[in-house]
Amino acid sequence: MSSADETPARPFTVCREDEPLPPQLRGAVAAIGNFDGVHRGHRSLVEAVRAGARAEGRPAVVLTFEPHPRAYFAPHLPLFRLTDPGAKEIVFRRLGLDGLVVRRFDAGLAGTGARDFVRGLLVEDLGLSGVVIGHDFHFGRGREGTPTLLAGLCRDYGLSCRILPAVSLFDEAEPVSSSAIRAALSGGDIARANALLGYRWFVRGEVRHGDKRGRVLGYPTANIALDDCGLAHGIYAVRARLPDGRVRAGVASYGRRPTFDDGAPLLEVNLFDFAGDLYGQALEVEFLAFIRGEERFASAEALVARMDVDAAEARALVATDRTPSMIEGGR
Q: Do 156 and 191 sit in the same domain of this protein?
């Protein structure tokens, strides 16, 4: 299986929250945004930053913010994040960048005016030499900062500023967006979601103890709870990266187990040709294809018969899928 883009030749540095910027990242050119999903549109910014920084002999970085602004302003509302902070770091490591800068989105940043955002954060704190943003990027108190305003402020402070247009998939009019990917995943359209992303969508989580029913049915599973996940309930062909770096194909169910308990949504992953204890360990699970929706069966025997069919289909789908992977290969 191929991986997306090349592994960076230079060390990748992560500067989190209030950590001072390390000397090797001073003078960087930065792509700025939330980058939920790090999809094809986001990747155009990364490619522009990488090319521009290399031409000037400067570091190429991404500047993003945690928590997601929507989670800050409306913490009571569910937020289906395509990539949590750790997943974003995994993807950015694969894209040939020199670093990832994460700054805390809090009351102070939310109340910062546009000019102070540029002078205080971009110039004084990070010492950037230039920025790359998308056409719809807004920043500063009340989202007062527009791309046009940012370009003017960058001129005032001696930074370069490049504004990129929307990116569409092939001949489609609709631009690639995180919202479009969430809609595809909510409808079980893994093929479209992965096409918009440019790689296989994946999730991360710790394997928890379950009721061990899968063992009894002949399909032991690694169970992962996914917070605020909008993925359609159903059966999927998947691959998972184990803690030791090995990748195994499998079949997974995401849903409420209507044949048994209709409980809280849970991702249950059956890994082919694997035996071992994964409890308490972290897995990365990528989704290759949607097989069918979640169903209620009349008996455990009927469910197992269908699981046999699902597993065979998942094996065939994994064998033929050529979408790039972000969980396979070096880090």
A: no
CA–CA separation, 296 and 302 (whole Å): 10
- Asked whether 67 and 81 are in contact (CB, 8 A), the reply is no
249-273: burial string, b at 16+ Cβ within 10 Å, e else = bbbbbbbbbebeeeeebbbbbbbee
Please state the rounded mean pLDDT for residues 260-277.
88
Task: Please report whether residue 315 resides in a domain.
Answer: yes
ω into residue 67 within 30 of 0, thus cis? yes
Please give the model's pTM, rounded to 2 decimal places: 0.91
pLDDT in tens, 1-23: 445 554 445 789 999 988 899 99
Which amino acid makes up residue 238? Answer: V
Do 156 and 201 sit in the same domain of this protein? no
Range of the domain at 308: 178-320
pLDDT tens by residue, 132-165: 999 999 999 999 999 999 999 999 999 999 999 9
Query: Residues of the chain with pLDDT > 70: what percent?
Result: 93
